[in-house]
Amino acid sequence: MKGDVYKLFKDKRSAKVAVVAHCILNQNSRVLGLAKRSSIITEIMESLIRHDIGIVQMPCPELSYAGMSRAAQSKDQYDTPMFRKHCRKIARDTADQIQEYAKCGIKTKLVIGVDGSPSCGVNETSKRNRGENTSEHEKVNGSGILIEELRFILKEKKISTPFHGIRYERLSEDVVEIERLLKH
Fold it and tell me: pTM to 2 decimals?
């Protein structure tokens, strides 16, 4: 019965979801001056819609922790016990949703983050430059804090799902990769 529970509803649900970083669905949440679009990253949403994928919006830990008027910070600036605890709670809540969906046969096809983000970077995050201007950040290999915590909790729960980090500079390539991942 496990995995086929949703079939009992006899409705039109696709039984597929993607967990998506908050700012992909709402650019208004980004640090002031860093929004790349007016609202939604439509190319990502259109891809999910084409594949009948429901959307779970991951809360933005930076917005809920530091507010709208926060300064841009790097992973090493955010990596404090309090912020990590904040991200761990969001990750646990997100993982619990993924687990609940799985119990009912609804598959999480993908977690989509934003590379370069100190919180939601999947393959790239940011660190503070140590030069003259320490407010500048550079991209480095690694995951953001929220993604690290989510991966850890999903591993604890023995839940496997692919992760993909988008970058605004390569959005068309990312859409192609997301399409490939959603077909599996």
Answer: 0.91
